[in-house]
Fold this protein.
Amino acid sequence: MFQLSLPRGRTLDLQSPQIMGIVNATPDSFSDGGKFYKNDSAVIQALDLLEQGASVLDIGGESTRPGATDVSLNEELDRVIPVIEAIRTQSDCVISIDTSKAEVMKQAIHAGADIINDVRALQEEGCLEVAAEFSDVPICLMHMQGQPRTMQAAPKYDHLINEIISFFETRIAACEKLGIARTRLILDPGFGFGKSLQHNFELLGKFNQFSELNMPLLAGLSRKSMFGNLLNRDTNERLAASLGGALLCAQKGAHIIRVHDVREMSDVLQVWAAANHGVTK
Ligand code: 9MG
């Protein structure tokens, strides 16, 4: 059973799968068309996701969808810091900052973020050092082959699962070298990040193999194109597939599920928890 220590003596209990609600502070986000770009809308959405059952809010200011362009440091800071500050004035909830920039990580933590969610697994300049500096902040290390702009061009693996596990081992070693304890790390194989349709579904089928690392696991499949391509569905028609995929991940050992549709995911996971841990009411 895993429990993550958080800043200010708080903890995140991972005994049953927890929901990370996605809050996009990006104008070009692929699944909400920028609806939540304005800071105030993002804050309203964030607080609503908590009501719906999210235990973590993931605030991101740079879209990582395939083909997305880079965002400048100042632009990213302008998008996310006011949102984190505003949420903090109203809630003591767990906030993660979705970024790969060291300075954004640092300012976000000062503004009240509790967790770093880095799709580039702390490989960008200065990120390992920032993570080492804030010793009470957990970090999600995600696997990605390539970079968002080009990652879906021709992803190639000789052995998908072994290569992802070996990537994790390398990044864990890099963290430990700087004094970042293994107990602070969450691992995410990165559905849709430099993976073909076949790779994504192999990952889903074999998700349980990551449990051998004996570390908390995060799965993010919400509305992803793996479902669109399999089922020929637009982004807003992928709810059932996303929930089904997420439930499979929960069953195969995921501890945190990153989703847009928190209320629906919460219902699904409550059914899962009742079947696995019994009914308490
Ligand atoms: C930011 N972001 C988009 N998709 C993601 C995923 O699948 N996992 C994590 N950790 N972050 C993601």
Observations:
- The chain has a mean pLDDT of 93.
- DSSP finds nine helices and ten strands in the chain.
